[in-house]
Specification:
Immunoglobulin-like, alpha+beta, single chain, 2 domains
């Protein structure tokens, strides 16, 4: 670690030392932030925040500590999911394949399972008994033709055309690949590997997400092809395991009988805000609203554009300092909804959006896969639509909660009460 620079500097140094494919969008900014004289603290801090924001958006900011730094445990999906699992909203049971045909004698077991309206998450355990595979060398595992269906033959996940066609033929239905409908869900996928304390075993977390999953009681997982990558370089050292694996899961009653608790507005500090959704589940709190008259004044709009392009502006350091000072005095964040804060830059939780229960516990927005997220302007920027998920759950909730919405330069407080 370079002691001449602060913690954020050193994280930047470490990232760019170990990653040669630097995105062009941040090359100018990173140089400016790291090598600006420390006397220009305002410029340095703001440029760093811009870089952190960009890195977060493109998924490269894993090492930079932010507010309430939290190590995600269950499926890596955030504090809300972890709270649900801690309170029993998870299936922890070794489920072996009903059918298994595999020349490499790979043992696959489902260790954990969780399902809510948006998430279908599964933790697989892989034990490789073949001498040709060592778990310590494996960088990625992909279930190439995985298809997940329920007791009503609803397709909850299928990313392989051949698997879909086979299912349709066996069940006398006619679906076209990626032509989704009420019985064939459009899904996203987030997966990652985790080490195991057991020898030659590796854990695969498979997080599948969509909207409004049904309250299924029985699920079937089926796949015949597993792709193993033993090198971080793309398309190198890939091995294919062929077989026939089927797993049957009895969904816990708590999951298929899941319900949401609705909230109503008691009062709101801004008459331009109209709340459309406020409801809590076992895994999070969904909040939606419409903000009218959301346009920034022309002066602030121009200032925001200048700040976003600060590293590229052909102006003197003195002019940059004046611009930064003006920006800081405007209390204008980098994005419409400020979702986190950076203590190292002198910020507190009041600088971002959160929800607070009657126990004075505050919960931030979840920005993890499988959480509902929508932020967009309509009507030529005059109206802003927000739909987000907070990390508060049924297990943390109280009869009343307060949403602290940090929208650009305004702080909006919305008091909500549980509907009996």
């Amino acid at each position: 670690m370079n002691k001449k620079h602060d913690e954020i500097d050193n994280l930047f140094f470490e990232y760019f030392e170990n990653n040669t494919d630097t995105p062009n969008i941040i090359i100018d900014g990173i140089k400016t932030a790291l090598y600006t004289e420390k006397s220009n603290y305002a410029i340095t801090s703001l440029i760093k925040k811009i870089i952190i924001t960009i890195l977060s958006i493109i998924g490269l900011c894993g090492g930079i500590a932010i507010a309430g730094d939290y190590i995600f445990k269950t499926f890596g999906l955030g504090k809300g999911i972890d709270t649900a699992a801690k309170n029993g909203y998870i299936l922890q049971q070794d489920i072996s394949a009903e059918k298994k045909v595999d020349e490499t004698d790979t043992e696959i077991t489902i260790k954990e399972f969780l399902m809510d309206d948006q998430n279908l998450s599964t933790k697989f355990s892989f034990k490789f008994n073949s001498n040709s595979l060592e778990s310590s060398n494996i960088k990625n595992i992909e279930l190439k033709d995985l298809i997940i269906t329920d007791e009503n033959n609803v397709i909850l996940y299928c990313g392989n055309e051949k698997a879909l066609n086979e299912f349709c033929q066996n069940n006398n239905v006619q679906y076209k690949f990626e032509k989704f409908n009420d019985n064939y869900f459009n899904c996203g996928l987030n997966s990652f590997l985790a080490p195991s304390s057991e020898e030659n075993i590796i854990i695969l977390n498979y997080n599948i997400y969509s909207n409004n999953y049904p309250k299924s009681k029985k699920l079937k997982y089926k796949f015949q092809e597993i792709e193993i990558t033993e090198n971080e370089e793309q398309n190198s050292n890939k091995k294919i395991l062929e077989g026939n694996w089927e797993f049957n899961i009895d969904v816990p009653e708590k999951m298929y009988n899941r319900q949401k608790i609705a909230y109503k507005v008691l009062n709101c500090s801004d008459e331009n805000v109209e709340v459309s959704t406020a409801q809590v589940s076992d895994t999070g709190f969904e909040f939606g609203c419409i903000i009218k008259n959301a346009e920034l004044p022309d002066e602030l709009k121009q200032l925001k554009e200048q700040i976003e392009n600060l590293p590229k502006l052909n102006i003197s350091e003195e002019e940059k300092e004046k611009l930064i000072s003006k920006y800081m005095n405007s209390h204008l964040p980098l994005s419409p909804i400020n979702s986190t804060y950076y203590p190292d830059l002198g910020e507190t939780i009041e600088d971002c959006t959160y929800i607070e229960n009657q126990k004075n516990q505050k919960f931030l927005l979840s920005r993890n896969p499988g959480r509902i997220q929508q932020e967009k302007f309509i009507d030529n920027g005059k109206t802003f639509i927000l739909y987000e998920t907070f990390d508060i759950t049924k297990y943390d909730i109280t009869d009343e909660v307060r949403v602290h919405l940090n929208f650009y330069y305004k702080q909006i407080n919305i008091q909500l009460k549980k509907i009996s």
